[in-house]
Amino acid sequence: MPTSEPTIREAVIRGSSGKTRLYVFGAMAALLIVVAIFAESLCPCDPYLQNLDAALQQPSAAHIFGTDRYGRDMLSRVVAGSRVSIFSTFLLVAIITTLGTAIGVFCGWARGRADHLLMRVSDLCLAFPGLVFALAVAGVLGGGLHNAILALAAVSWPKYARIARSQTLAVRETTYLKAARLAGCSTSRLILKHILPNIAGPILVTAMLDVGTMMMELAGLSFLGLGAKPPTPEWGSMMSETRGLLQTVPWAVFAPGTAIFAAVMVFNLLGDAVRDWMDPKMRVKS
Amino acid sequence: MKHYVLQRFLSLVPVLLGITFLSFALMRLAGSDAITEMYSGVGAAVSQETLDAARAKLGLDRPFLVQYFSWLGNMITGDMGKSFVSGKDVLDTFLSKLPATLLLAATSILLTVAVSIPLGVISAVAHQKAQTARNASARSACSLLDAVVRLASFIGNSMPNFFVALLLMHFLAIRLGWLPVIASGVTLTGAVMPTLTLTIAMSAKYLRQVRAAVLDELSKDYVTGAKARGVADGVILMKSVLRSSLLTIVTLLALSVGSLLGGTAIVETIFMWDGVGKLAVDAIMMRDYPLIQAYVVWMAIIYVGVNLAADLLYLVLDPRVRLEVERNADV
After folding, report:
1. Which of A21, A81, B150, B283 could lock B291 by a disulfide, CB 3.0 to 4.6 Å apart?
2. From the CA of A238, how many Å to the nearest CA of chain B?
3. How far apart are the CA of B210 and the nearest CA of chain A, in angstroms?
């Protein structure tokens, strides 16, 4: 019988596999974070230590990913780079989530002219290709990891503002909110206790799904020389540093590249799993 | 209808002004300017008088609003000034880089469409067949096909495009020697690797969207109705489903045409592809304001143009939109 409705048995199997996926990818992401936290003690060699005698080595037992032109151990640099790459991405996502939600809730609550203006600004930011705009902002602010984070934050908040605004507009019309208001709740209490908990779900899911994208964009800015500066180990800037070695020791390029790929993949998978877990209706479509 | 087009067009003028003003303000708010950058390369200390004289020569000492309006006035007449760094005419420099970007945009959009639409449709149909096919082996074959396409799209989505670019360079150019590592000028062989890089990234993204759009459409009642009346699956797919999914696809393509025309900074830089994206990166590094501004104006024009084009395409593609516009015009 052709039907798109899953049977109960299928739904149970899928539901449990959804949970399993959540745990598996959650554990993988946790592992990455643990590596990032203890990066310094996990490095087999000093990631900054130069040894010109051992420069440009192919992968070997001593240097699993080989060495770069200064003889630095690539494996150590990739491990050390995880801290900068992963935590600056988390910082960035935290900033845009908070900022976007604050603006969105404000717009949905206050409405009127300020809402109109902020939404037009967000339209512009959404329409412009993100990286190009971030590039311009980073160019104006100057290079450096902090400025790269600021630049990407400046262009990435509108997505969250949009979601928070539409959710706030929906929640403010609900009966429970009217009841809370009639019961004499102050505006700040209404927003903090009644609106925010109810709109948090979709925003958190978006944030989870965004970690991978933001990691790539941040690495992209670093790759162009507008993010982390050498010799700081950061995956994007490491690739730009070792790019010229593609013909001689390709592993010096592939190691950080694979690290970005793996980390982005894990966070994307986790994001998908979290979304499916929170909203089973989306599962079929994606 | 004409009224609608005109209205859409006029509503975009404030956007253009807004973007140019913002970009202008942003550049001026920055702590450093082209003069500082220029003389910081000299190495020796430069007196304040020299700096001031150089600024006065470029008009950087005038009030902000005066600078903005004089720039806007000049720009409308086609005079976008001279590059602070090379001293060449901005408009000429910019126009000379445009063909490379246009070529790359055209090839990668065409290839993306050719890859992502068929694969997306196949994946969606396979997904549906996996649930409805009568025999078990057909079901598992279909679900395997869907899974493979989705896995490919997932991998493509998780690869930063500079990594894809360097991988292609390593395998196609260095290992296999099929292509030159760096393009010598704007040629079709030189365009192969940047096109592939962009296509991989974009197809991975669109494949998912096309698949979702087609699946959404396939689950609608009219499809079941058509099937019940004995219309062939292929006909339903081609005549009804694809047509209705076209709106989503056009919106997506419009957005990516916009960002492609803006030049893809990273890909152009890696492959030394002499387009506007690379020009913008170089200009940003050198704080060459006139060039950056020309670039921002170009982006604004693209934004406005692409939005307008997408709206007009909806009119052509979707009778529902057409009806609504005509109804509004009558009122």
Report:
1. B283
2. 12
3. 10
Question: Does the pLDDT of residue A4 top 50, yes or no?
Answer: no
Interface A–B counts its CB contacts (< 8 A) at 116
Q: Which of residues 6-65 of B touch A (CB under 8 A)?
A: 15, 18-19, 23, 26-27, 29-32
CA distances from B249 to A80, B126, B253 (A): 42, 20, 6
* Residue B193 CB contacts under 8 Å (≥ 6 apart), including other chains: B165, B168, B169, B172, B173, B179, B271
Domain ranges of chain A: 18-38+65-285
Q: What is the ipTM of this complex?
A: 0.84
Cβ distance of A261 and B23 shorter than 8 Å: no
| Chain A neighbors of B207, CB-CB under 8 A | none
For A126, name the nearest residue in chain B, comparing CA atoms only: B255
Mutate: best of A5, A17, A209, A224, partner B, most B CBs <10 A? A224
Give the model's pLDDT for residue A3.
Answer: 44
Does any CB of chain A come closer than 8 Å to the CB of residue B153?
Answer: no
Cα(B82)–Cα(B88) distance, rounded to whole angstroms?
5
Query: A164 or B291: which carries more pLDDT confidence?
Result: A164
Within 8 A of B29 by CB-CB distance, chain A residues are 140
B169 CB within 8 Å of a chain A CB: yes
Burial B248-283 (b: 16+ CB within 10 A, else e): bbbebbbbbbbbbbbbbbbbbbbbebbbbbbbbbeb
pLDDT (0 to 100) of residue A243 = 86
Q: B83: exposed, middle or buried (C-beta count within 10 Å: 0-12, 13-18, 19+)?
A: buried
Domain over A18-38+65-285 is classified CATH 1.10.3720.10: yes
Shortest Cα–Cα distance, B212 to chain A (Å): 5
Please report residues of B whose CB lies closer than 8 A to that of A264. 158-160
pTM: 0.82
Residue A257 CB partners (closer than 8 Å, separation 6+) = A235, A239, B160, B163, B166, B167
Q: For residue range A166-212, what is the model confidence (pLDDT) as tens digits?
A: 999 999 889 999 999 999 999 899 999 999 998 988 899 899 989 99
Bridge partners of B82, per DSSP, are B89
CB atoms within 10 A of CB B167: 20
**Beta-carbon separation of A4 and B162 below 8 A:** no
Burial class of residue B235 (count of CB atoms within 10 Å of its CB; 0-12, 13-18, 19+)? exposed
**Residue A10: pLDDT above 70?**
no
- Residue A62's pLDDT is 79
Contacting residues of B for A226, CB less than 8 Å apart = 284
Place of tokens 């292509």: B179
Query: Quick one: what percent of chain B has pLDDT higher than 70?
Result: 92
Taking only the tens place, the pLDDT of each residue in B131-189 is 877 788 888 888 888 889 989 998 998 999 899 999 999 998 888 888 877 767 778 78
d(CA A249, nearest CA chain B) in Å? 11
Which pLDDT score, from 0 to 100, does residue A285 have?
A: 47
| Residues from chain A contacting residue B18 (CB–CB below 8 Å) | 124
Q: Helices (DSSP H) in chain A: which residue ranges?
A: 8-37, 39-42, 74-110, 112-127, 130-141, 145-156, 158-171, 175-182, 187-189, 196-223, 235-242, 251-278
Mean pLDDT of the region B67-82: 79
Mean pLDDT confidence for B226-255? 82
